[in-house]
Amino acid sequence: QFDALWVMGLHDGAWPASPRPNPFIPLSLQRRLGMPHADQTQELANASLITQRLQKMAAEVVMSFPAKQGEEHLRVSPLISDLPRINKNALELWQGPSWREVVQQSGQLCVLVNDIAPPCEQTLVSGGSGIFRTQSLCPFRAFAEYRLGGRPLQTLQIGLDPMQRGSLLHRVLELFWRDVKDQQTLNAMSDDQLNDRLASVIKTAVSEMADSNPKTFTRRFTRIESLRLQSLAFEWLVNEKGRAPFTVQSLEQKREADINGIRVHLMIDRVDELADGRRLVIDYKTGKVSPAQWFGERPEEPQLPLYSAVEGENVCAVLFGQIRADGTGFNGVVEEDGLIPGLPGRSRQLKEAMEQWPAVLQEWDATVKRLAADFKAGRAEVDPKKPATCTSSFCELSALCRIDEWDELV
Q1: Confidence band (pLDDT; 50, 70, 90) for 283?
Q2: Is beta strand 2-7 parallel, antiparallel or unpaired with respect to 58-63?
Q3: What is the pLDDT of residues 146-158, one digit of tens each?
Q4: Do residue 284 and residue 378 come from a single domain?
Q5: What is the CB neighbour count within 10 angstroms for residue 360?
Q6: Which of 106, 161, 380, 396 could form a disulfide with 152 if both were Cys (CB 3.0 to 4.6 A apart)?
Q7: Global pTM value
Q8: How many Cβ atoms sit within 10 Å of the Cβ of residue 274?
Q9: Could you tell me if 330 and 350 are in contact, meaning their C-beta atoms sit under 8 angstroms apart?
Q10: Residue 80 pLDDT > 70, yes or no?
């Protein structure tokens, strides 16, 4: 029961509602069993009963309908057409300020700015290289995700999601290089031998993932996925034959690194060693990436600069290993021309990085240390590097940081 009641929106297109039968059950069966929303007669009866009950819920009841919706003229619902009509000017409507005006006039609005969270007292922080990336993109997002645990639920997908596909390719190449070990052995293989070796490791990698995804890995799916992996890995390894001689020093190496008081677990895809002892840091990528995202005060992808800082001295190249259906190859920064075929290429930025290689490594080291220090100190201001991405699928924390309200407050 209410002191007064106003029911709105009762036009003939909305009340009674149109039937909404279940599309997966025969309509005749739904009507025979009297299932909800299956029949116009049933909808009319339910709406009539609800209308009668609403009229008895208060001593004063007003029922209304909109005259127009856009350019469309609307008519009153037949369920209330017999009720007495009254001009709205005859109603004793509240003429005072709205509740919003009352709240706004009740005091002075104060904007509290507190961009500093309590310092991070944990020594070992979960999140790996993602902490550095997120701290660079938006300090508040790093605080919300890695200290408050504010992460969105994962969206379920049919089959393998992009991360699983990438992990599967990583595993194939890991198994291959654990067996082959160096370029000399790779170059000694004919195409048939290379394909046979790949088929063997692909079978192992697919079998491992199928154990945890048995419903996904049907016979046909397994065959298609194996062919995809075979094609990508073969093209990639043929490219590797054209490099300067190397030995694979480490694969999927787990490292615990201390960066300015923040200890994180890292997983470096691969480190190669040349004959002179210099090392190349490699990260496989199946998506589109660019080394341009490594530079500046707030790099968008500081993962590989972080790895180079952790690896220390004698690093002569930091590389994306791009493995995609539309092309495979290395992309990144090298210490000298000719170290990796095609690099530095025509990119002016990559050429300048090659010419200033020691300074680039020092800059990356300073950048990741600064990001670690900011995270540890609790720096958490809402300061996205690209504000336009806050309202897209890039970040799902805009309701928490309330960035959309900032312009109104300012």
Answers
A1: very high
A2: parallel
A3: 999 988 787 878 8
A4: yes
A5: 20
A6: 396
A7: 0.73
A8: 18
A9: no
A10: yes
Please name every residue paired with 352 in a beta bridge, in sequence order, or none if there are none. Answer: none
Q: Answer yes or no: are the C-beta atoms of 252 and 269 closer than 8 Å.
A: yes
Is position 328 within any domain?
no
Query: Helix, strand, coil % (nearest 5) of the chain?
Result: 40, 20, 40
Two tokens, residue 324: 């995609």
Q: Would the pLDDT of 84 be above 80? A: yes
Query: In 287-396, which residue ranges form alpha helices assigned H by DSSP?
Result: 303-311, 348-355, 357-377
For 178, the domain range is 162-240
Task: Quote the tokens at residue 164.
Answer: 């699983």
Provide the mean pLDDT of the chain. Answer: 91
Length of the chain: 410
Backbone conformation region of residue 401, classed left if phi is above 0, alpha if psi is from -120 to 50, else beta? alpha
Cβ atoms 138, 195 nearer than 8 A: no
**Residues 6 or more apart from 81 whose CB is under 8 A from it?**
none
DSSP result, 181-222 = -BHHHHHT--HHHHHHHHHHHHHHHHHHHHHH-TTT--HHHH
The secondary structure of 226-257 as a DSSP string is: HHHHHHHHHHHHHHHTTSPPEEEEEEEEEEEE
Beta bridge partners of residue 124, listed in sequence order: 263
Distance of CA 224 to the CA centre of its chain: 27
CA dihedral sign, ordered 9, 11, 15, 18: negative
Give CA separation, 57 vs 7, 60, 78, 137, 176, in Å: 11, 9, 20, 54, 75
Nearest to 255 by CA among 244, 268, 242, 245: 268
Q: Cα 103–109–111 angle (5° rounding)?
A: 140
Residue 323 lies in a domain: no
CB burial of residue 192 (10 Å; 0-12, 13-18, 19+): exposed
Same-domain pairing of 284 and 400: yes
329 falls within a domain: no
Domain boundary among 240, 262, 283: 240
The average pLDDT across 7-19 equals 90
